[in-house]
Amino acid sequence: FLKINSSPNYETKSSYKIRVQTTDSFSNRYSKAITLSVNDINDAPTDFYLSTYTFNENIQAGTTIATIYGVDEDISDSHTFSFMSGFKESSGNRNFYIDGNKLQIRNSPDYETQSSYTIVIKATDQSGASSTGAFYRTLTVNDIADKNTGTPSNDSITGGDGIDEINALEG
Q: In this predicted model, what pLDDT tens digit does every residue of 30-43 receive, in sequence order?
C-alpha cells in the first residue's frame, strides 16, 4: 500500500510524481513512474479583513467606512459577508450595515460619544462554506476638531473686580 506523509493541498501542489518499484519472490524488479493528481476541494474562508480600520467623526449616516475582503485559499472564490452576534465583541455590529462588500455606518459617529467600535463578521464563499470562530475587528473613530459656532445675537460680557480674561474662539 501507499501511504502519504501529510495531507495534500491543491493550492500548494496540484500533483506529485512518484516512482513505484516492486520486487517479486524471484528478485525480479519492476518500476514505473506515475503522477498522482490532487483533487481541488473547496476550502472555507478563514477570515476577513477591511480596507481601513479608521474613519472620521461627524460623517453622514450611510457613508461607506471600509471595503470587506474574505481570506480564502481558493483565490477565485467570491464572498458574501454578514454580522455574527452572540459574542461580547459583537457590540458594535448594530452601528453598521453591510451592502455587498461595503461596511456602512448607520448614524453619524461622534468621537466624544464613542471613539471605537468592535464588529464580528463572517465570510461565506459561493459554495456556502463559512469562516468559523469569532473574527472581530476594532474600528477607531478619528477625532476631528469640532466647529464652534457663535450665537446670532449680540452678547455682552460683564467683568467683576480684579483682572478679567476673555478667550474667544473663531465663529
A: 999 999 888 888 88
